[in-house]
Amino acid sequence: MKVLRIFGILVAVLAMVGFGLCGVLGVMIGFRPYADAANMFDETFFMGLAGLAIFATLAWFLGRKLYRAFSAPGK
């Protein structure tokens, strides 16, 4: 059972890193600083923001799980 828990955390970490990298790449590709205001943000910019939001959610989830796993048991 402990092996499955560790495996699940590793899969979540890999998904978190993947969403983070794709999010950063989407934001970098989708933002055009020298275009006019109507064409400054591409669709990939908003997809990148969604990827970064998923990254932040997974990071919060994993941080909470690891904090509970390594914290001292309460009385």
TrEMBL record:
| Residue stretches spanning the membrane | 7-32, 44-63
Keywords associated with the record: Membrane, Transmembrane, Transmembrane helix
Q: What is this protein called?
A: DUF3955 domain-containing protein
